[in-house]
Write a structure and sequence with these properties.
Number of helices: 18
Oligomer: single chain
Number of strands: 11
Mean pLDDT: 89
Radius of gyration: 32 Å
Order of helices and strands: HHEEHHHHHHEHHHHEHEEEHHEHEEHEH
Structural class: alpha+beta
Low-confidence stretches: 1-15, 32-38
Shape: globular
Length: 500
């Protein structure tokens, strides 16, 4: 056996190059796998800061959640706006930018999310300066929401809240990311409520604000009826049939004559009687319609012809100028230039502010989009009834059943509700002249669903005082944000990195 060692031939430069390339490629593949794992877990997004202040921040994952919240709020209307939700919003132009600016639908929702996040950070900074922080009870509420999100996810067939959020948003958002947003929201809400509650509490403040802003408080009551192509079709046909041969009948002149005749009436009582007659002439009773249903339709149209407490800014300029200079029982005929519609107005009450007391009510909403009948409504109503409609039971059942997110967390309670503030059926029940504290019942509203109602009693404020208080506190809220927004820093590139 030879002990001679065989010498290895030196590798060529080309071979060495291939080895290096192979190593580089392998490293790239491994790196890509690591990156994808990081990205799918949201670490990349969380590593980016979209907005920050001295003590708080919104990272990419949190911002992605806020972005998707804005998107979901408008989702049902997007198709009507020409948006293809199956495609990236970054490639679709949005028409909602002010003149001289442009952007995609992605940019639009980013702007909305940025505005929301900026407000949260400003309020949180204000809370920090004031020494306000979240208590263990506040944090428990946030944690409870996380548990609720997990339960919701499983109800939709997902393993947990993280999987559910990622499927819904298209971004690697986790329940913890949502909870971080909720902490900011809870602190912002807690402090802003405490802060603004210190404003708008005295009669002197209300009167001062009223004197400075009368136009936003004073309103008028009136009835109106329009003579147009639909309401005068029969009368035009009759006039045409009775006209002498060769005589032209002007529909415009007929409508003007009808409007002028109605405007000559000198009392509200006579005007409303003629108005009811016009409605009965206009609405035809259906073949299968009962007399009761027909009269109900007529009554609805009559009620819709009455406008209560219309402020000047809500009216056409000419109508507004007339209404706020007129006296009760005065009439006015309005015809827009180029239009063949003549609308008659009768002022029933001169400019006034709403002095009636507000009312407080609890309710639980069962949305007609979720429930097809009142079986569940009656069951919950019976449970409330057996418990004596206590506040505690309302709090429990409102949290469990109510589809009104604005009141479900506080037992369905609305305080200082103004007349006309709620939908018609809700309003009519609440402001029934015979309503007494402790009254309860079920109201079916065409636009929302079933409402279990409980009348708490009259509020502490008059309607106009409630408006003044809201305006005063809104102004204080806006100033609070303005005063604490100076330190907010925004990274547009970090915001644009989320999927959209």
């Amino acid at each position: 056996m030879s002990n001679t060692k065989t010498k290895k031939k030196p590798a060529s430069k080309k071979t060495v190059l291939y080895v290096i390339i192979a190593i580089v490629i392998a490293a790239a593949i491994i790196g890509l796998a690591i990156y994808n794992a990081i990205d799918s877990n949201g670490l990349t997004l969380r590593g980016k800061t979209v907005l920050k202040t001295d003590h708080f921040k919104v990272d990419g994952a949190m911002f992605s959640y806020l972005y998707n919240t804005q998107y979901q709020n408008l989702y049902s209307a997007l198709s009507q706006l020409g948006v293809d939700t199956s495609k990236s919003l970054k490639t679709q132009q949005c028409p909602f930018f002010v003149e001289g600016q442009s952007g995609s639908w992605f940019d639009y929702f980013v702007d909305r999310a940025r505005s929301e996040a900026s407000n949260l950070l400003a309020l949180c900074e204000a809370a920090h300066s004031a020494g306000v922080s979240l208590t263990s009870e506040d944090l428990k509420t946030v944690d409870d929401y996380g548990a609720t999100l997990d339960a919701t996810a499983k109800g939709h067939g997902y393993a947990n809240g993280d999987k559910y959020l990622q499927a819904v948003t298209g971004n690697p958002i986790t329940v913890n990311d949502v909870k971080e947003c909720l902490k900011l929201s809870a602190l912002a809400s807690k402090y802003s409520s405490e802060y603004t509650s210190g404003f708008g509490n005295t009669a002197e403040e209300f009167e001062k604000y009223y004197e400075e802003n009368k136009a936003t408080f004073d309103g008028v009551d009136f009835y109106s009826w329009s003579f147009d192509a639909t309401t005068t079709a029969d009368k035009v046909a009759e006039a045409t049939a009775n006209a002498e041969e060769g005589t032209e009948v002007s529909e415009d002149e007929i409508r003007k004559e009808l409007a002028d005749a109605m405007a000559k009436i000198g009392s509200v009582e006579e005007f409303t009687e003629m108005l009811k007659a016009e409605i009965h002439n206009y609405l035809t009773k259906g073949e299968d319609e009962t007399e009761e249903d027909y009269e109900a339709r007529c009554d609805t149209m009559f009620r819709n012809s009455f406008t209560e407490h219309a402020v000047k800014s809500s009216l056409n300029t000419e109508v507004g100028e007339w209404a706020f200079a007129a006296q009760a029982c005065d009439t006015f005929v309005y015809n827009e230039e180029g239009s063949s519609t003549y609308t008659v107005y009768m002022l029933s009450k001169e400019a006034y502010r709403q002095e009636d007391l507000t009312r407080s009510v609890r309710h639980i909403l069962f949305s007609s989009s979720k429930y097809t009948d009142d079986t569940t409504v009656n069951s919950v109503y019976a449970e409330l009834e057996s418990a004596g409609f206590t506040d505690e039971k309302f709090v429990e059942l409102a949290a469990q059943y109510s589809d009104d997110t604005g009141s479900s967390s506080n037992g369905g309670l609305y305080e200082n509700v103004k007349k006309g503030q709620m939908i018609a059926e809700f309003n009519d029940w609440l402001f029934d002249p015979e309503r007494k504290p402790g009254d309860h019942g079920i109201v079916k509203a065409a636009s929302t669903g079933w409402h279990i109602m409980y009348y708490v009693g009259e509020g502490e404020l008059k309607s106009w005082e409630s408006d003044a208080q809201t305006a005063i506190r809104n102004a204080a809220y806006d100033k609070l944000i303005e005063d604490n927004s100076g330190s907010i820093k925004y990274d547009a590139s970090a915001a644009s990195s989320i999927n959209g």
